[in-house]
Amino acid sequence: MDAPAPPPRAARPQSVLFLCSQNVVRSVMASALARHLFGKSIYVASAGVSAGEQDPFVTAALEEIGLDASRHKPKSLEELEEYEGLGFDLAITLSPDAHHLALEATRTNALAVEYWPTSDPTLETGNREQRLSAYRQVRDELEMRIRARFRQGAPRGP
Fold first, then answer.
1. Which of 27, 131, 150, 153 fits 18 for a cystine, CB–CB 3.0-4.6 Å?
2. Which fold has domain 20-149?
3. What is the pLDDT averaged over residues 117-145?
4. What are phi and psi of 113, to 5 degrees?
């Protein structure tokens, strides 16, 4: 009897890159969540079209669920490529400009790309609680998507 075929590569990538506009909100949240949920079973990194400045609302939204992003250093895709290369199995893009950049990168790299349109909580106006609520919504949406996309055979984090 033959051994069962392994799942398709797209079903269980070994390495994932989360990309957004500035590597300060959506990609930071997504990478922190994926690391927490799947530990070392998937290599996770994040980058942006450009590197922005740290966002304290991201730190606050992640701290609420026990994750620490305070030491995150925003980096551009260009910086990431220079130091780590783009040997990822999958890039998940979270903004239109990041998606465009990732598709350009596939011309010279064997990189699968998935687009997860994700709202930008930095556009929320109002008081601190209203703004933080927008970040929580993005955080929770990303967690749900990550759990659904990578759940097959992956161990949970602590």
1. 27
2. Rossmann fold (3.40.50)
3. 96
4. -130, 130
